Amino acid sequence: MRPAASLAATLFMLAALLVPASSGALESATTQYRVGYNGLSARGSMSLRPSGNRWVVTLKMGNAVASIDQSTVFDVNGGRLRPLGSSRRVDTAISGKAITTTFDWRAGSARWKGDVKPSRAGPVALQAGDIDMLLLNVALARDVAAGRATRYRVVDNGHARVLAFKRLGTETVTVDGRKREAVKLFAAADGRQYVAWIVPGMALPARFLQHEPDGDTIDMRAA
User: Which residues of 157-184 are buried (b: 16+ CB within 10 A; e: fewer)?
Assistant: First the structure.
């Protein structure tokens, strides 16, 4: 199985990712996507790997004008995916930007360092069950497979937002040249709209579409 992704500096908000089986157990995986961004195209890869008693999700994507390298370290606590730290680097032909995030669960706060505005440096108070944008996709695939609710508090980029995904029925998507039946989900927050297509048995979304408040559209499809 495969999927992947890529694009420009605003793409980092999309993290998609992998894992599950109906049991909810995490499994090592690598995926690839084709990504469309306002008429531009890119490719990338995402992987999930164990690291001791933790897991690391890595997303690499890019084209001739921009690249993104992002990863999140997390563990499973009380059945929940719990981010511990993340890094993100975005490079374009004229600039580079790097940000690291620390999730301090003992202190109950998240903070950001690097090329970040003071207003986005935190701290942001953490709540049990919080995830980041990379883990969102893991959680979606995992929870749809298990028939659980798909409502999440996402802590990312210096603030938190609640994404409550509604199920819009099923829709046919194409993966590896094959027609597959996917559960279609929709959520909206802060002027953004998110649509995800989850195929039973797939490690991550078969497709993820994001509409930005300024009209930009990011469309990520399994390759």
Answer: bbeeeebebeeeeeeebebeeeebebbb
At 117 the three-state DSSP class reads coil
Element (H, E) at 217: strand 217-222
Q: How far apart are CA 16 and CA 5, in angstroms?
A: 8
φ/ψ of residue 144, rounded to 5: -65, -45
Measured CA to CA, the distance from residue 139 to residue 146 in angstroms comes to 10
- Could you state, in order of their start, the residue ranges of all structural domains in the chain? 9-222
Distance CA 210, CA 133 (A): 12
Spatial CA neighbour of 48 closest among 173, 145, 135:
135
58 to 4, 54, 88, 195, 222: CA distances (angstroms): 11, 13, 10, 22, 16
Alpha-carbon radius of gyration of the chain: 16
Per-residue model confidence as pLDDT tens digits over 114-165: 999 999 999 999 999 999 998 998 889 889 999 999 999 999 999 999 999 9
Q: For domain 9-222, give the fold.
A: outer membrane lipoprotein receptor (LolB), chain A (2.50.20)
Query: What's the pTM value of the predicted model, to 2 decimals?
Result: 0.83
